[in-house]
Specification:
- The protein has helices spanning 29-35, 51-54, 56-66, 75-78, 84-96, 102-119, 135-138.
- It is mainly alpha-helical.
- The chain has two domains: 1-47, no CATH class; 52-151.
- The relative contact order is 0.08.
């Protein structure tokens, strides 16, 4: 009885946490959040519509391109990180990207799943010259340049964050 609002009432019962200021219980998170606004001058939050409904011409393309996340390319990761939420987010983000930059939205979404796979200990080399390429790498032959893209990084390299070049569990592997 001493606590209320966006943090719930701390009675270890999740079923009554969406209680309005008037003590009415609601199911919709949007209604709950709007009721607990700090200031009445703040506009009410509105439900977000799926951008694929607003841009249906982009949906098929987004589904096809984001399908890489659920494809054989990432098969070794699927048992470690469920791809479904990442695929859905990729499709929505790619549908929403209507002012150019298709590849940026798509590649960022796929890279997010690749990073989750890396975090789970599964390295996936998914970039190609056709899908989300890193051109600097494709134009540098292996013997030609010492800098090359590695899909899961190398945590033992000498860098500004790791000047000694020694391995450490503190240094994360990044895509």
């Amino acid at each position: 009885g001493s606590i209320c609002g966006l943090c719930g009432n701390y009675d270890e019962n999740d079923n009554n946490d969406f209680t309005l200021r008037s003590q009415e219980l609601v199911n919709a998170p949007m209604d709950f959040g709007n009721d607990w606004k700090e200031s009445s001058s703040c506009p009410a939050a509105l439900e977000m519509t799926n951008p694929c409904y607003s841009n249906p011409y982009r949906q098929v393309w987004a589904q096809k391109q984001c399908g890489m996340i659920t494809s054989q390319v990432f098969a070794t990761c699927h048992s470690q990180v469920d791809p479904s939420e990442f695929y859905d987010a990729c499709v929505q983000d790619t549908c929403a990207c209507i002012s150019g930059g298709d590849s940026e939205c798509l590649c960022s979404s796929i890279a997010t799943y690749a990073q989750a796979c890396n975090d789970a200990g599964v390295c996936v080399a998914w970039r190609t010259p056709q899908i989300c390429p890193l051109f600097c790498d494709y134009y540098n032959s292996l013997g030609e340049c010492e800098w090359h893209y590695k899909p899961c990084g190398a945590p033992c390299m000498q860098t500004c964050r790791n000047p000694s070049g020694q391995c450490s569990s503190q240094i994360l592997v990044l895509e």
